[in-house]
Each structure stands twice: as C-alpha cells, then as structure tokens.
Amino acid sequence: MKVNAKKVLSLNNISKSYQNNLVINNFSIDFNYGNSVGMIGKNGSGKSTILKISCGLLKPDSGNVLLMGKSFDSTEDSLLIKSRMGVVLHEEMLYPQLTVFENLNFYSKILGIKNVNTKIEELSTLLKLSDYLKISVSKLSNGNKKRVSFAKSLLNDPDILFADEPESNLDDKGKEIVSKIFNDRRKRGLTNFFSTHSKIFLEECSNQLINLKDFENA
Amino acid sequence: MVRQIYLITTGIVFTISIWMIFLWAPTEINQGQVQRILYLHVPFAWASMVAIIAIAFTSFLFLLTKNDRWDNLSQSLAEVGLVSAVVMLFSGIVWAKPVWGVWWTGEAKLTTALVLFFIYCAYLLFRNYFPPGNARNRIAAIIALIGAIDSPIIYYAAQIWEQNHPKAVVGPLASEESSLNGEMVITLLFCVLTVTLLFVGLVWTQYQTNKLLRSKNA
Amino acid sequence: MLNWLKVLSILIKKDIKIEFQTKETLITLCLFGLLIITVFSLSTENNSLINQNFGAGILWSSVIFAGSIAMVKFFYHEEQNKTLQSLLVMPVPSELILFSKSIVFFLFLSISEIIIFLISSVLFNLNIFSLKLILGCIVFNVGYSVVGSFFGVISSKSSSKEILLTMLLIPIITPILMFIIATTNDVIRSELNSNFQTWLGVGISFDIIFLTLMSYLFGKIIDD
C-alpha cells in the first residue's frame, strides 16, 4: 500500500536536544519511495536520533516530520503510518520472558497479520531462526536477538524499514542475509532508511547516501 | 529600580507587621498570647494554597506555549510554595497543642494541607530524579495539573472523613470559639499582605536563580 | 487495523502470560504485603485490641506499599527491554497500553488482596468478608491500578523509581484511600449506619475522573 505522496519521508528543519545538549540542529532531508538510503556520521552525530524521529519514536523540539505524506500528530494518521512501517533499533525491543515464536506471534496479532504461522515460518527460514523458535529470547545471543528483531520488523512487509546499524552484532552470514533483504526490498519498490558505520554495507545496500558531516551543527 | 522599591516596601511592611503582631493587636481572650501564631499561620496557608493554583495555571500555559519561562515559574512557585506549606504546618501544630490539647486532628483542612504538602514534595522530587529535558518539563506540568485537579476531591473526601471522626480535641480551650475583633482582623489582613509581598519576592528571586542555573547547564 | 477490544485482549494476554512465567508481580504483592501484616502483628501482644481501631489501616498500608513496590517491578522490565517503545512504533493507540497495564495490575492486586485479607483475618481475628468490602475493593483497585500504571510509566524512566512512584501515587489516591479505609472500618465494626453511599460516590467519581484524565494524558507522557 502506498499512500498518495511522492516523498516517502520528509524531515523539515528538525532540531532535537537531549538533556540540554543540542544533538540535531535544523536538519532537513527528504527522499522518494523505492530508495535504500544509508546514513553515515561519527558517533554522537545524531543518526539514531534522526531515525527515531523519522519513525515517530521521538518528537522533535522543532520542525515537522511527514512519513508517507502524513504526520504523527494526528492519531488516525499515526496509526495508519505505523501499520506500514518496520523498525529495527539498537535495542531489540523483544520480550525476553517469551520465546521467539511467542514474540513474533504477539506482534503479528497486533499488526493484524493473517496466516501468522506461515508468515513466521517464512521469516524464520529467511533469517535462519527455525531452530530457535521455541527458545526464550533471554537465552539467545545478541546476533540471534538481532535477527528476531529483524523478523519482527518484516512481519507486515513494511513500505519503509528503519534500521539503526542493522549489520551490528551479526556474523558474516547474518550480514549477507540482511544485505539481501535490503536489496530485495528495493527491487520491489519498497524503501529502506538505515544508519551504518560500515562502508562495505553502505556500498552493498544503499543507492542514496546521507553524510551527517554535511549537516554538522553550527 | 523596581527591585529597590520592592525591597524598601517589603522591609517597611514587614516591620509594621511585626509591630502589629506583637504590640498593636490585643491579646485574644480565650487563647492568650499563643493566638498570635495565627498571624503567621493563616497568611502562609493562604500563600501555599494560592501557589498550588498558580502552579496549575503556569503549567497549563507551559503546555500550551512550550515556553520555558512558564516552566521555570512553575518550578519557582513550587519551591517557595513548599516552604510556605512547611511554615503553615509547623505553625499550625505549635498553635494546636496549647489550644486544642493535641498536635493534630482529623480536620479536613489539616488533612488536605498535609496531602498538598506531599504533592509539592512529589512534584519537586520528580523534577530532581527525572532526566532533565523537554520530557521532564512536560511531565512535571502534567503532574502539577493532576495535583490541582485532585485537590478539591481530596478536600471533599477529607470533609466526609471529618464527619465520621469526632475531633479529638480535649484541651482547655477546645470548646471555646475564638473571637477576632477589628484590630485583629486588620493585623491579619496586613500580615496576609506582608506574606504575599514576601512570597512574590521569593518566587522572583528563585526564578532568577533557576534561570541562571538553566543557562549554565545548557 | 484490528479493533480496539481485540488489541486490548492481545496486550492483556501477553502480560498475563509473562506474569505466569515470572510470577514476579504477584509474589511481590503477596509476600511483601504479608510481611507488613506480620510486622504489625508483632507490634502488639493482644492482636484483638488492634482490630477495631487499626485493622483497616494495617490492611491497607500493606496493600498500598506492597502495591507500589510491585508496580515498580511491573514497569521495570518494560523500560529495561524497551518493549514499551516497541508498542509505540506499532499501530496501537497509546490509551490501550495504559488500559491493558491497568487491567492486568487490577487482576494481580485483587488476587493478592484475597490472600492478604485471608491471612489478616486469621492473625487479627477480623471478620471482613462482606459484599460491601468487595464492592469497595473493586472501586479502589480500579483507581489504584489506573493512577499507579500512569505514574509507573513515568517513574520507570527515572532514578529512584520506588520512592518517586510512591511519592507521586499516594497523595493523589488519598480520596479513594479514605474511601476504602472508611468502608473497611464499617465492615470490621459492623456499623449499619454509615456514609457508605457517599463514600461510594467519591470512589466512583474519582475512578471516572482519573480514568478519563489519564487516558487523555498518557500519550503525552510516553512521548520523548
């Protein structure tokens, strides 16, 4: 489903402070559907903050955000946008007390996914999680938790996938899988917006680059 | 210039109040000299109640305008309001023992005053423990509004409670009604004016101090 | 998009499932509550002297303080694992998060109260089982759970969570605390002429006002 808007994401003059430290200052960017946009910048340059603002997890101190032509300020629009996006952050945001299957099952039901078992099987095969479905998330390695987090974000085949350093904590095989996912999505006209420190991952997965050095705070 | 006028005015008014309390106002027939504590107790009770309403108002304005000045004013009002509440409670207890024979009763006003004291404490504790930033200021404003909305409910509940719990006052003056003549009323009103001026000055001083601290931390 | 009731039931089932696995909230509520009751029972040589005058206060002191400790634990894991954030990027109205947490805590609180009251009736020779008290507990638990969940989310992000939650919660719930203590006193003393209806009005009004207020404000406190 694509909402009728040319730009999938527009950030206009976004500023954000954390505990009185200015992290982002008057940042603006926009890009179209079907792009895989990679963002690089040094530590503390605001990559995670920009991603969190873009997916509605953080509210900017000033400026506005339009995702798929809609704003997070309206409750109705916000729910619509959230049903069509996927998010993978540094924190896995999983319930450690539940198994991999139970976590994915829960989020599938929230998203209203039909044929939940089929979808979970498909994603666990793709992300090589089939052997871990019945294992509690607390017992998984960080790499496997990251894969589960990816699986969760792909349940609704989102129009836009936000990912904060998606290749971190993953072994070579895992990076290969994620890279393939990103490229497959782009071929299907879906959008990825991610941050990374890896130049190799950036070259493999992105067709548009944002370098935060160009937007450094005054 | 304004500051000097204020200091001189407050100094004069304060001096007159002391003269009125200890020398001009006659001694109350039933309560004796201890009644003079009320010239302190009542104005500070008035100040602490007004402060709660003022904090709710400034918090509402902060949520509406997102202007930090209103947040600073809310904080300053709470800090001075807490001091007023402590003076009110302490002076009330000191007055109650010789007059009622007990330090404390289940009277609605006392219960409400005590709970309001705790609401002040909770508001300031929150500001202290929560990480600084826009989220803290916004949530503090919400807590202030919740406290203000709850205050009349607390007072009403305390009144019903009082009906069920006969006053445990057994002191020698417990059954006597206090009587205020003209000079006492004038003294009381003048003290209210004095404490109001003092309150405004303290809030203003605290506001300036907080402003400096905030700009230092920025 | 699923309808609200369906999403609410999914959220509730998830929390209950987690609680069945960990049993942390329920154990904290029951054991800590019973510990407080035990301390009070040790404070006097003649427990029946306590019951008429202080029974209600002892019971509800234990529930309140055990409840606030359990509430902190209830939200601690959410904040630690950022699972509350995971719901914020899902198509879940923020009020439903508050409602689901409140409903689940209400269930746990009710279960723990049954256990605490049973033990208290033995230790203090209290006769406290009556429809009046059950109704009172329901009204109290609703208010306590909603206000507690609201402040639980706030305090989970701060240092000194336990003290902050308790300091925020107890002053605000004073009206329903007075209500339930008055009701419990009526039951313990078998008082027929009481202000129960007036108190019930206070309790229900408090619940309605704060349920409405907090569901409106919840979205504003979980935004960063």
Structural notes for this entry:
The complex is a heterotrimer of chains A (218), B (218) and C (224). Chain A contains seven helices and eight strands. Chain A is of the alpha/beta class and 218 residues long. The longest helix of chain A has 16 residues, at 172-187. Chain A is globular and about 45 Å long. Chain B has one domain (2-217). Chain B contains six helices and no strands. In chain B, α3 packs antiparallel against α6. In chain C, α3 (47-80) runs antiparallel to α8, α6 (131-156) crosses α7 and α6 packs parallel to α9 (196-222). Chain C is globular. Chain C starts with a helix and ends with a helix. Classes of the chains: A alpha/beta (218), B mainly alpha (218), C mainly alpha (224). Chains in contact: A-B, A-C, B-C. Chain B binds chain C through residues 111, 115-116, 118-119, 121-122, 125-126, 129-131, 135, 138-139, 142-143, 146-147, 149-150, 153-154, 156-158, 160-161, 163-164, and chain C through 154, 157-160, 163-164, 167-168, 170-172, 174-175, 178-179, 182, 194-195, 198-199, 202, 205-206, 209, 213, 217, 220-221, 223-224.
Amino-to-carboxy terminus distance of chain B? 30 Å
Radius of gyration of chain B, rounded? 19 Å
Rg result of chain A: 17 Å
Within the largest sheet of chain A, what's the order of strands? Answer: 5-6-7-3-8
Taking pLDDT < 50 over at least 5 consecutive residues as the criterion, the unreliable ranges of chain A are none
- Tell me about the biggest sheet of chain B? none
Number of strands of chain B: 0
Question: What is the strand content of chain A?
Answer: 15-25%
Number of domains of chain B: 1
Range of strand content of chain B: under 5%
Oligomeric composition of the shown chains: heterotrimer
Give the overall pLDDT of chain B as a whole number.
86
Helical element count of chain B? 6
Silhouette of chain A: globular
